[in-house]
């Protein structure tokens, strides 16, 4: 409770507040930032700024309502970071030391969180960043409007893969039920969130045609040319990796995406290896069963290197 008192005090006493979520934001990250925006608006008359290094994917636009994210960080007195294990997840080009003298609140659920900031509200057991913020609202006795309930629902739904991933807990389902009681219509929201564009589906076809499965490890890749040929955006490939992990017998999945300065890699595991640990060796991170990293190598070199690292981990874990 003491950290909540501090949070409210920080919100009340700082004039220029920026709420920031991580680059390549997912539903939980966007929803968590929006929920905190409502929290700040409750205690202050002026609206806070919302920052994200990447553009907000099209499919989450419906969540924004009157809010807007900026990609340019202005002057601020207080930064509230959500769903981000480290400041480098938010500001790829800033050194963490540049933020040394700033008031920073760190609200997160990643076990790899590096404890940045002046006030930390971190709960690794929470299903999502939204779950943590939901409990903040409850403990502060704040009313949750239907608008806000929808935001929480989308965040938790997204982070639990639609209430199927291992982070689907008694708490997350209970919150979902409370949100439905507040007026959320899951059918409407889920249709909105899962809607695919035709170009996104064309992209999926191209990516799926690259699948390889060997010894319980599945991989596939996306190169820039596929985006152009499908007229699709990179963000439309957000959940593609679930197709790999759904294949019978697959224990670890790797999805490689070509970027201008290297390769972005998403990893999933059924528990045979800890992909958070593996991703951290390359400056990435996430959770035990789902993590990501970036590597300054082309897609073929990146594939070789990470595949080798995965196989090494599997061998190690099978021996012990
Ligand atoms: Mn999250």
What layout of secondary structure does this protein have?
Blueprint: H1 2-13, E1 17-21, H2 27-43, E2 49-51, H3 61-64, E3 69-70, E4 78-82, E5 103-108, E6 119-122, H4 129-139, H5 146-159, H6 170-181, H7 186-194, H8 198-208, E7 212-214, E8 217-222, H9 224-230, H10 241-245, E9 252-259, E10 262-269, H11 275-280, E11 285-286, E12 290-295, H12 299-319
Parallel strand pairs: 1-2, 1-4, 2-3, 4-5, 5-6, 8-9
Antiparallel strand pairs: 7-8, 9-10, 10-12, 11-12
Helix pairs in contact: 2-4, 2-5, 4-5, 5-6, 5-7, 8-9
The protein binds manganese (II) ion.
Description:
- The chain is an alpha/beta fold.
- It folds into two domains: 191 residues, Alpha-Beta Complex (inorganic pyrophosphatase (n-terminal core)); 122 residues, Diaminopimelate Epimerase, Chain A, domain 1 (Roll), CATH 3.10.310.
- The protein is built from twelve helices and twelve strands.
- The strands form two sheets. A six-stranded parallel beta sheet has the order 3-2-1-4-5-6. A six-stranded mixed beta sheet has the order 7-8-9-10-12-11.
- Helix 2 runs parallel beside helix 4, helix 2 packs antiparallel against helix 5 and helix 8 packs across helix 9.
- It is globular and about 55 Å long.
- The model has no long low-confidence stretch (mean pLDDT 95).
- The site of manganese (II) ion has 7 residues, from helix 2.
Short description:
With 320 residues, the protein is α/β, with parallel strands linked by helices. The chain folds into two domains: 191 residues, inorganic pyrophosphatase (n-terminal core) (Alpha-Beta Complex); 122 residues, Roll (Diaminopimelate Epimerase, Chain A, domain 1), CATH 3.10.310.
